[in-house]
Amino acid sequence: MAFQLLPNMQLGVASAPAQIEGGDVNHNWNNWYHLGHIKDASSPQRANQHWEHWQEDIELMHSMGVKRYRLGIEWARIEPSEGNWNKEVIKHYRKLLTFMKSQGIEPLLTLHHFTNPMWFEKKEGFTKEQNIPAFLRYVSYAVHSFGDLVSEYITINEPNVYATLGYYGGGFPPGDNSVQLTSKVMSVMATCHIKSYRMIHRIRSKMGYTDTKVSFAHHARVFAPENPRNPLHISYTVLSKWMFQGALAKACLTGQFLPPLRNINHVPRGQYADFLGLNYYTRSTISKLGDGVANDGPKNDLGWEIYPHGIVSCAQELYSILKRPIYITENGTCDNQDTFRSRYIYEHLKALCASNLPITRYYHWCFCDNFEWLEGESARFGIVHIDYETQKRTIKQSGRFYNEIIEQGGVTEQLYEKYVHEEEYHS
């Protein structure tokens, strides 16, 4: 039952600005809320009010032994209208980053996490290659603003989820349903990542820094045929996996654009990641082109299958494309009553630590309950509970477990008995 963390493996937590900051920010997800698309009718304008409570949250992280924090900055705050930069917002983020570092917490900074300023959205965002310079201008401004405080960057979070849910599934803004647009958005975002990767290195090199690390956060899942003897199920599985994650990983990591993606800016082949950022949550069971869930097996409160071994196979597949240290940039589960999250953390960490992969970071998603996109406030992923009415923060049982894993460098038999032994998944 016991296991030790891998050598050099550090545990951290993750968040996204639109999900925690609150405030009436003019971005596409606030607009999506006003259009009535959030399932529980909650608003990102409330969220966790982290914009005001940031110091309390960082102090709470520090008290839990967290030394690594993947956080994001909000483009719509920094550039509220095209070409106009908000210096007060830069001061705010610099103050937060400086305080983090004073508490011994190192940042991994995400530059884009699903949200666009509405001026960029109205220009049709990442569907147009003509908009790539606007994104690169923002990246340049951000790195010039924070480059002395931040050495590690995520350019874009989950381009495949952003593209698929926004332009094929229709659930994310802008709510389109087009295979062609989905492929175009992935191609544009992959190009943005590659150009940003080179730019960030160039800017920090001119600043005199040699410790720059850049990647993107890739959402990957296991794809399995519902009936492994059914040739159609097998074919759909292979195709779904390639369309959702395989082609994008190749493009972003190596500059090799394979159908359905296109190398629209003629970027050269290369190596465009200093670490592999992996977001892992679940397994998809396939009987047609798209997504599906197994009839049996454990599920979380959103009905996603819980499949711990998949985190290793997804990491292995990324590593086979490009040999780099692996950061698990997100892993977590929706467990509204916190009755099985400790088991989830335990089983995923144990699987990682039993692998022979160079996994050096694990960022739990997420630090505290937050505005969970389409689910609003109804889906709780945090190891810290948020009372949205009072904004009170309370460390959950799973948060105490995570704290003790960090302190002890793994899970002892005693920790297993205390936190994991009696927990069971839903079936």
Structure description:
Belongs to the glycosyl hydrolase 1 family. This is Glycoside hydrolase family 1. Keywords: Glycosidase, Hydrolase. This protein has 427 residues and is α/β, with parallel strands linked by helices. The chain has a single domain, classed as Glycosidases (TIM Barrel), CATH 3.20.20. The protein contains 14 helices and 14 strands. The chain has an 8-stranded parallel beta barrel with strand order 2-3-4-5-6-8-10-11, surrounded by 6 helices. The chain has a two-stranded antiparallel sheet with strand order 1-14. Strand 12 and strand 13 form a beta hairpin. Helix 8 runs antiparallel to helix 9 and helix 9 packs parallel to helix 10. The protein is globular, with a radius of gyration of 20 Å. The protein starts with a strand and ends in a 7-residue tail after the last helix. 48% of the residues are buried.
